[in-house]
């Protein structure tokens, strides 16, 4: 009888211990789950904020571009047309020149209208958006710029395109403002697994080991943007030999849904 009572007591104790362990494990699991959910929400909020900030920066840069182009390009063309009209009043044979100048002005305005649309990037592929930038540099004679690309084999998520475009836009701005370069060459290459974008100028360059210069051109900012979409951003430079950027992004087959969920 005593043995039975002892066995029941031991079994009860074991059962209680098991229940306590299960409760403790469940509590730990819940805490970890809640912690992971909190981290996920913080990451989603960070990503959403970064996307919003990037879109604002692109629009601010676009407005600056529009201002420059209206003043430096279209404004000058219209001024020329006005002068030609005055000359044509005494020499009707000059009307053809007026027509050519006005036609060119209209062509430039159509090109500019693509930038005015705040959602222009959404309606364009990444390569098309980069090409618009390259064409603008050439129109304004900022620099002699070229772009080469193979056929796109993967449609990128809108948010990924925004991040990549802004990274390149920052590099282009540094090239135009600080590099004293005469040429800028961009290559966009798609394959089955990734996209690699390489851009290089022939400017003054800098010592790539100089952290002050690296910070000045915003390399860490470009790399941090790249990390948002798991893209690798590498910048190389050498004094008097120019600066180059290489961006590599591996496609994520489920990235579109994931990113949409994060931003929505």
From TrEMBL:
UniProt keyword NADP, yes or no: no
Catalysis performed (reactions): ATP + protein L-histidine = ADP + protein N-phospho-L-histidine
EC number: 2.7.13.3
Top-level taxon: Bacteria
Any GO molecular function: phosphorelay sensor kinase activity
One Pfam family matching this protein: HATPase_c
Domain called Histidine kinase: residue spans: 65-253
Residues passing through the membrane, by range: 6-29
A cellular-component GO term for this protein: membrane
The UniProt record lists the keyword Membrane: yes
PROSITE patterns named among the record's database cross-references: HIS_KIN
SUPFAM superfamilies listed in its UniProt record: ATPase domain of HSP90 chaperone/DNA topoisomerase II/histidine kinase
Keyword line: ATP-binding, Kinase, Membrane, Nucleotide-binding, Phosphoprotein, Transferase, Transmembrane, Transmembrane helix, Two-component regulatory system
InterPro entries noted in UniProt: HATPase_C_sf (IPR036890), HATPase_dom (IPR003594), His_kinase_dom (IPR005467), Sensor_HK_TwoCompSys (IPR050482), Sig_transdc_His_kin_sub3_dim/P (IPR011712)
Protein name: histidine kinase
């Amino acid at each position: 009888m005593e043995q039975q009572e002892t066995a029941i007591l031991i079994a009860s104790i074991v059962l209680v211990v098991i229940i306590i362990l299960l409760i403790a494990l469940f509590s730990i699991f819940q805490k970890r789950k809640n912690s992971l959910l909190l981290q996920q929400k913080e990451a989603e909020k960070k990503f959403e904020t970064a996307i919003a900030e990037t879109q604002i920066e692109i629009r601010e840069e676009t407005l600056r571009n529009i201002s420059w182009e209206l003043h430096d390009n279209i404004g000058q063309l219209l001024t020329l047309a006005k002068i030609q009209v005055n000359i044509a009043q005494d020499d009707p044979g000059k009307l053809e020149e007026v027509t050519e100048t006005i036609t060119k002005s209209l062509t430039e305005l159509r090109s500019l209208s693509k930038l005015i649309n705040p959602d222009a990037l959404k309606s364009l592929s990444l390569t098309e958006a980069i090409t618009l930038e390259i064409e603008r540099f050439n129109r304004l004679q900022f620099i002699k710029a070229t772009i080469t690309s193979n056929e796109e084999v993967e449609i990128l998520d809108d948010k990924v395109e925004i991040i990549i475009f802004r990274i390149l836009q920052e590099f282009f701005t540094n090239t135009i403002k600080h590099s004293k370069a005469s040429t800028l060459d961009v290559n966009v290459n798609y394959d089955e697994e990734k996209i690699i974008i390489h851009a290089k100028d022939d400017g003054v360059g800098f010592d790539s080991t100089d952290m002050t210069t690296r910070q000045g051109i915003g390399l860490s900012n470009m790399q941090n943007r790249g990390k948002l979409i798991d893209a690798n951003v590498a910048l190389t430079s050498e004094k008097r030999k120019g600066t180059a950027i290489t961006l590599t992004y591996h496609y994520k087959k489920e990235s579109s849904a994931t990113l949409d969920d994060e931003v929505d």
